Amino acid sequence: MNANMNPTSTEIIVASSIGLIIAAAVHFRLKKIRDQRIVPKIKVSGAGQVVLGAETEPKKKLKHIVMAATREQRFERVTKNLKVARVFNTLVEEMKAIGLVSNDDKCTDVMVPMAHKDRSPVLLLMGGGMGAGKSTVLKDILKETFWAGAAANAVVIEADAFKESDVIYKALSSRGHHDMLQTAELVHQSSTDAASSLLVTALNEGRDVIMDGTLSWVPFVVQTITMARNVHRRRYRMGVGYKVDEDGVVTENYWEQIDEEQQQDGAKKRRPYRIELVGVVCDAYLAVIRGIRRALICRRAVRVNSQLKSHKRFAEAFSTYCQLVDNARLYSSNALEGPPKLIAWKDKEKNLLVDPDEIDCLKVVGRLNDAADSIFELYNNPHPAYETGSVWKDIVLSPTRLNIQKELKYSIQNVERSI
């Protein structure tokens, strides 16, 4: 240091270097602490296998235990308090969907069957397993020439929409994500009944209808198509549904006629429905990934085994449905980028035409193991997830995602141990 007490350039450089070293050391120390909170400490056994350290054993939180123990009482209390409100809310939602509730001052008699002078009304069946990508395909379909003009007056049937507007569902969901699955299951039957009520009302009135669902239960779908074929001559109402009597005999009667065939004059004669089917299929593990993402973002979750069953059953039933409808299309949503791909189609009485390079996806999904607990149990050999070009092999298991894989593995193990 010189006589004027000013530091020399050498002293400045030395001090700066020491400061940088200290800052770097603090940075890496904090980063190490953060990483240890996310990724468990790894130990190597004598055999060279990687094992988790004892400190990674999760501790069950008292809150989770209390929530599980009091779930039944909480659900019962909320259901009792909102039972009447739910009835009125569901009725209003049905009226909104069919067009009875409007902000316009002008009254419209929308319950009178629409006068389709130049065409038949259309029933569009959107089918595919949970997380297949039906919503994406439907958005594209609504841009087509016909639906661009008809969609505004069409009735959209979607059980999930009733579920999300259910006052009991909203009340329970607002209290946290701990009961996400159980909350969805609690209101499943009521939302399904509301959707069925709206469907039969819309068909009785001759409206264009878009029915969005998994179409995984063949008896229900077949009976619905039969009703649509005859509803221009007879009116229908909801049946008893799926019932098991004391002897174990199963009865499935989803729709029943409420009057005999009516003679209609020329002015009031209704045209029969044109029934179209649009199916969406994808590799089941992709659907599970989408389901997990939806649960995190929307807090709307389904059990994985239920999801797998919906994919398998729809894939097995698609050919049967094709024989019952006037027009059918099947899309594959396996690609991460770009729109879903049309892989099969049928028009009127013609045979189903398929893309030979892509239709195997439908066959593969039809033979999946719906009781699988992991992707390794999902299919027998050959396993599509390990084929070249698959999302699982090329993206999920990419070596460039090692840290993400470790974080995900730890999170999954942590959740599994806390159950």
From TrEMBL:
GO terms for molecular function: ATP binding; kinase activity. Residues 116-223 form the Zeta toxin domain. The keyword Membrane applies. InterPro entries: NADKc-like, P-loop_NTPase, Zeta_toxin_domain. It holds the Pfam family Zeta_toxin. Keywords: ATP-binding, Kinase, Membrane, Nucleotide-binding, Transferase, Transmembrane, Transmembrane helix. The keyword Nucleotidyltransferase does not apply. The chain crosses the membrane at residues 12-30. PANTHER family: CALMODULIN CALCIUM-DEPENDENT NAD KINASE, P-LOOP CONTAINING NUCLEOSIDE TRIPHOSPHATE HYDROLASES SUPERFAMILY PROTEIN. This is Calmodulin calcium-dependent NAD kinase. It comes from Sesamum angolense.
